[in-house]
Design brief:
two-stranded parallel ribbon, about 425 residues, mainly alpha, about 75% helix, 16 helices
C-alpha cells in the first residue's frame, strides 16, 4: 500500500491553510473599520486613507509573483513564517503613525508584503498540489478560513476601536498574526507535494507492491508563453475587476453604513455578516466545482449572486437592509477564493499552480488596488458612494457574461515557469 498514514497529509495542509488565511484576510479586512476613526482623528480625506489599502494591494500583488514561484520549489512553512513576521511588524507600527506617508509605509508596504506570504497563492496552491478529485472541496474548506477570520476579527476590531483605540486594535491584530502564523506554518505546512513523499494525490492507494517513482523531469515554460495564452488574460481581467469591486466594498462599507447613521459596532459587524455568509459560500462553491463539468459555471453563478447583492447595497440604508445585503453579497463573495485556484489548476495543471496563481494574483491585485482609492475619490467628489455602487453593478454584469467564454486547452504539467 502506498499511503501508510491514517490521515492523508493533504488534510493537514487544508487545516493549516484555513488558519493562515483566517488571520491574514481577517486582519486585512479590518482596515475598513479604521477608515472613519483615522479620518476623524487626523482630518485626512477618505481618498488619502484609502490610498494605504491601494498600496497594500499593489505590494501584495507584486509579492504574489515571487511567493508563487518559491512555492513550486520549497515548503510553504518558511514563506508563511516570514510573511507573518513582516505583516505583524507592519500592523504594530501602523498603530504609531501620524502622517499619511507613515501609514503608506507601514500598512501599505509592510503589511502588503507580509500578507503576500500568508495569502491565497501560498495556501490555496499548497492545497491544490495535494488533491485532484477532491480539489474543489479541499480548496473550498481551506478558503472558509478567510470568512472565519473576518467574522472573528472585524467585530473584535470594532469593539476595541470604540472602547479603547484603533491603535490598540492594530497591535492586537499584529500579535495574532505573528503567533498564529508562525505556529501553524511550522507544524502543519512542512511538506511540498505528495509525490515528494511517495504519496498520491487525494490520499489514493494502490494494491500492488509499489516502488517510489523517480521525480519526473521538469521542462521550462517561459512567462511569455503564459502571457500569450488567452485563457490567462480572460481569468486575470475578470478576476481583477471582481476584486476591484470587492475591495471597494470592504474598505468603504463600514463608513457607508456609519454615514447612514448606523452605529460603529453594528456597522463593523456588517463586514462579519458578509464573511459569515462567505463561509458557507466558500464551501458550497468548492463543492459545486467538483460536480460541474467545468468550474467556470460555478464562477458564473458566484458572480451573479455578487451582482444581486451589489444591487441590494445601493438601497441598504438601515441595519436590517444592510445585513440582508451582506448575507446575499457574502454568499457570492464566497465563490472567489476557491474558484480562482480551481480554474487555474483546471486550465494550466497543478504542478505549475503556484507560479500561475502568483502571476494571476499580480494582475488580480492590480485591479483590486483600484477599488479602495476609486471609492475614496468618488466619495470626496460627490459626498456619497452611490456612483461607486453603480459602477460595481455594471462591471459585475459584464464580467458574468465574459466568464462563460473561458475555454479549456493545454495544461503545463511537469513544467516550471521561468
Amino acid at each position: 500500500m502506498l499511503n501508510k498514514e491514517k490521515i492523508f497529509w493533504g488534510w493537514y495542509i487544508v487545516a493549516g491553510s484555513f488558519f493562515v488565511m483566517a488571520i491574514n484576510y481577517g486582519s486585512r479586512y479590518c482596515f475598513g473599520v479604521f477608515v472613519k476613526p483615522l479620518a476623524m482623528e487626523h482630518g485626512w480625506s477618505r481618498s488619502v486613507i484609502s490610498m494605504a489599502a491601494t498600496i497594500n494591494m499593489l505590494v501584495y500583488s507584486v509579492g504574489a509573483i515571487f511567493v508563487g514561484r518559491m512555492l513550486d520549489r520549497i515548503a510553504p512553512r518558511w514563506i508563511i513564517t516570514c510573511g507573518a513576521i513582516i505583516a505583524a511588524t507592519g500592523y504594530i507600527l501602523t498603530g504609531f503613525i501620524n502622517t499619511p506617508l507613515s501609514l503608506y509605509l507601514t500598512y501599505g508596504l509592510l503589511v502588503g508584503l507580509g500578507a503576500s506570504g500568508l495569502g491565497v497563492v501560498v495556501c490555496s496552491s499548497s492545497v491544490g498540489k495535494w488533491f485532484l478529485k477532491k480539489r474543489g472541496i479541499a480548496i473550498g474548506i481551506a478558503s472558509m478560513g478567510i470568512s472565519f477570520g473576518t467574522v472573528l476579527l472585524t467585530p473584535l476590531s470594532g469593539y476595541i476601536g470604540k472602547y479603547f483605540s484603533w491603535r490598540i486594535g492594530l497591535f492586537v491584530l499584529g500579535a495574532i498574526t505573528c503567533i498564529v502564523g508562525i505556529v501553524i506554518s511550522q507544524t502543519l505546512m512542512r511538506k511540498t507535494k505528495p509525490e515528494a513523499y511517495g504519496l498520491l494525490p487525494d490520499g489514493d492507494t494502490i494494491s500492488f507492491p509499489y516502488q517510489q517513482p523517480a521525480m519526473p523531469a521538469f521542462t521550462k515554460v517561459s512567462t511569455a508563453t503564459i502571457f500569450k495564452d488567452f485563457r490567462f488574460w480572460t481569468i486575470a481581467i475578470c478576476q481583477g475587476l471582481i476584486i476591484m469591486v470587492v475591495m471597494s466594498v470592504f474598505v468603504h462599507q463600514v463608513a457607508y453604513a456609519m454615514d447612514n447613521n448606523i452605529e460603529h459596532i453594528p456597522a463593523a459587524i456588517s463586514l462579519a455578516v458578509v464573511s459569515f455568509a462567505g463561509f458557507f459560500g466558500q464551501f458550497f462553491f468548492g463543492w459545486l466545482s467538483d460536480r460541474l463539468r467545468d468550474p467556470k459555471y460555478a464562477s458564473f453563478i458566484g458572480v451573479v449572486v455578487l451582482l444581486i447583492g451589489s444591487i441590494m447595497l445601493m438601497n441598504a440604508h438601515n441595519i436590517s437592509s444592510l445585513y440582508l445585503y451582506a448575507l446575499v453579497y457574502g454568499f457570492g463573495y464566497g465563490s472567489l477564493a476557491p474558484i480562482l485556484p480551481i480554474l487555474a489548476a483546471d486550465r494550466f495543471g497543478r504542478h505549475v499552480l503556484g507560479s500561475i496563481y502568483g502571476l494571476l494574483t499580480f494582475f488580480v491585485g492590480v485591479g483590486g488596488s483600484i477599488g479602495p482609492i476609486l471609492g475614496g475619490i468618488i466619495y470626496d467628489k460627490y459626498g456619497s458612494y452611490q456612483h461607486l455602487w453603480e459602477i460595481n453593478v455594471a462591471l459585475l454584469a459584464v464580467i458574468s457574461i465574459i466568464i462563460l467564454t473561458l475555454k479549456k486547452g493545454k495544461q503545463y504539467d511537469n513544467a516550471l515557469i521561468n
